[in-house]
Model the fold of this input.
Amino acid sequence: MIKEKIPRHVAIIMDGNGRWAEQHGHPRIYGHLHGVEAVRSTVEGAGELGIDYLTLYAFSTENWSRPSDEVKGLMSLLVDSINNEVSNLMKNNVRLLTIGDLEMLPEDVRQKLQGAIDQTNGNTGLSLILALSYSSKWEIIKAVKEIAAAVKSESLDIDSIDDKLFSDYLETAEIPDPELLIRTSGEYRLSNFLLWQLAYAEFVFVEKFWPDFRKDDLVNAIDDYQQRERRFGKTSKQIKK
Done:
């Protein structure tokens, strides 16, 4: 592990909870319940490694179309997890943030989230970002509408629009783009996650289902990342100068 090459921001698509539960002969919600331990281990590992930002894809806008019992169970689990984990976040100096269309969440979930965000706001270690009711297409369309409204009201000059300005209208405006994306369960797709922000990220795909993921798997993914040559459109010869 090369300390100087630790990614500042790691994003994870936590996939495979339902299939893990089915393999073990249990309802899908059982996998989400055991996925909490994977979150705890990964957050601890990220803090120990000195990662500044960790974004977890916890619930997409598309997930609202899942069976109602599973969605209700996920919302209940989210509330319980917040209640149980805030003390650990405080102990480990972790700041909690969220991205996504939070207005779609039940009122009790929003209140618990806001309480945890407020309570951990002064922490100066790892920033843990939960993507909840999140969709990259939703995020991009929202940004386009806001920019269009600003141009229409003449508070923004259309010629000033560039990638930096566009990024400032995204949910992640105050957060650096991820250098590393990890997806569990052996699937090879982005699933509408951080499409703009992941333009130059390195991808690591892990065969394990999310409930089996632990901090050692995070370390292995970062070891893999550190072997990559990140060229950003340049040639190897240019990078090595």
About this structure: The chain has one domain: 3-135+177-230. The CA atoms of residues 92 and 183 lie 25 Å apart.
